[in-house]
Amino acid sequence: MAIKGTSMPTRKVPGKIWQDILLEIEPRKLPIPPREVPAEPGVYVWFRDGQPVYVGKASGANGLRGRLRSHFEQGTDFSRSTFRASIAATQLGIPRSVVRPRPSVMTLEQAAVANAWLAGCEVGWLVSASAGAVQGLEDALRGEWLPPLNLV
């Protein structure tokens, strides 16, 4: 899978931790009604063409539901979603320093490109018992293999 403007990490194949998690996560096509996303903490993985492209954690008050809501947004402010900012940077060639500051204001045309790319993705999640467990799992996943849209 080629993602414009990104280079694949040096480890091209997810390891054992990734393999175990991917067996537990069920990728879902968009749109996903918010009530179907758990409000508990957890780790989520975005997929494109069946391959993981981004991993993140949700440990705030609204858990996965609140965090994924920021990724589902269709507006021109990309500052609340590192994933959407990474999409804009790779698909449009816009430096992250332009996309990420708050509030970022992309043009409607730029947002449409990123939103169309995002619409072709799927997302899945794994609920965790605590915010600490979420952090540990995300750290382990990112330490073993870094998906192409995650920051180093």
Structure description:
There is one protein chain. The chain is of the alpha+beta class and 152 residues long. 39% of the residues lie in helices and 16% in strands. The chain contains six helices and four strands. It has helices at residues 16-24, 63-72, 82-92, 96-99, 108-119, 131-144; strands spanning 28-29, 42-48, 51-58, 121-127. A four-stranded antiparallel β-sheet has the order 1-4-2-3. A hairpin with a 2-residue loop joins strand 2 and strand 3. Helix 3 packs across helix 5 (108-119). The chain is globular, with a radius of gyration of 15 Å.
Helix and strand string, N-terminal first?
HEEEHHHHEH
Q: State the total count of DSSP E strands.
A: 4
Q: Give the rounded overall mean pLDDT.
A: 88
Determine the structural class based on helices, strands and strand pairing: alpha+beta
From the alpha carbons, calculate the radius of gyration and give it in angstroms: 15 Å
Task: Produce the secondary structure layout.
Elements: H1 16-24, E1 28-29, E2 42-48, E3 51-58, H2 63-72, H3 82-92, H4 96-99, H5 108-119, E4 121-127, H6 131-144
Antiparallel strand pairs: 1-4, 2-3, 2-4
Helix pairs in contact: 3-5
Quick overview:
The chain has 152 residues and is α+β, with helices and mostly antiparallel strands.
Structure characteristics:
152 residues, alpha+beta, 4-stranded antiparallel sheet, 4 strands, globular
